[in-house]
């Protein structure tokens, strides 16, 4: 979800869905995605959709849609690149709609079969909404044995607009 280059690390097909009722009143988030990295060339791809709605006060609401696609490919045996292209449409509490295309980029290095290091940059094209903030992150994944993955991530997000 956070680094598109990671799709090609494992040959798999997955369909995922999730729902979250948020802390603020009337806050709902839903996400669905389909990921396929079973191609002969180890190319990986994904399609996804996210929905957000919040009504923090009587007569005040905000909602948003995000739809996107990801592509991941190996450059050499241990280096993977990935990109997310996404369209965001978000209506804020002032009933102003922000929309446009943005993209993410990612890089993963598989140092040894049990250790991977990754980095990603998010929303490289500004669409002027707090729902798609610019940011970057990195992490390490360690696979001590096949049934256990330990992942450590750090993400920094540019905060703008409403604090």
Describe this protein's structure.
The protein has strands spanning 13-21, 28-36, 44-57, 60-76, 79-91, 97-112, 115-122, 135-145, 148-157. By secondary structure, the chain is an all-beta fold. Strand 1 and strand 2 (28-36) form a beta hairpin. The chain is elongated.
Relative helix content: under 10%
Largest sheet: 9 strands, antiparallel
Widest sheet, order of strands: 1-2-3-4-5-6-7-8-9
Number of strands: 9
Could you give the distance between the termini?
25 Å
Enumerate the spans where pLDDT stays under 50 for 5 or more consecutive residues.
Answer: none
Give the helix tally.
0
How much of the residues is beta strand, in percent? Answer: over 45%
Structural class by sheet pairing and helices: mainly beta
Broad shape: elongated
Based on CA atoms alone, the radius of gyration comes out at 17 Å
Give, in order, the helices and strands: EEEEEEEEE
Global mean pLDDT: 88
Question: What attributes does this structure have?
Answer:
163 residues, elongated, 9-stranded antiparallel β-sheet, single chain
Structure summarized in a few sentences:
By secondary structure, the chain is mainly β.
How are the SSEs ordered, and which strands pair?
Layout: E1 13-21, E2 28-36, E3 44-57, E4 60-76, E5 79-91, E6 97-112, E7 115-122, E8 135-145, E9 148-157
Antiparallel strand pairs: 1-2, 2-3, 3-4, 4-5, 5-6, 6-7, 7-8, 8-9
């Amino acid at each position: 979800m956070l680094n598109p280059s990671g799709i090609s690390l494992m040959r798999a097909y997955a369909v995922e869905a999730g729902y979250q009722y948020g802390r603020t009143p009337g806050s709902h988030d839903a996400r669905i995605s389909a990921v396929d990295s079973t191609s002969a060339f180890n190319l990986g791809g994904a399609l996804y959709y996210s929905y957000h709605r919040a009504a923090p006060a009587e007569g005040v609401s905000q909602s948003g849609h995000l739809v996107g696609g990801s592509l991941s490919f190996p450059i050499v045996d241990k280096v993977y690149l990935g990109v997310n292209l996404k369209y965001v449409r978000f209506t804020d509490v002032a009933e102003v709609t922000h929309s446009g295309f943005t993209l993410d980029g990612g890089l993963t290095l598989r140092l040894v079969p049990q250790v991977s290091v990754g980095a990603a940059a998010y929303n490289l094209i500004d669409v002027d909404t707090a729902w798609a903030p610019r940011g970057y992150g990195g992490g390490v994944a360690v696979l001590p044995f096949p049934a256990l993955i330990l992942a450590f991530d750090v993400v920094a997000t540019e905060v703008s607009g409403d604090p």
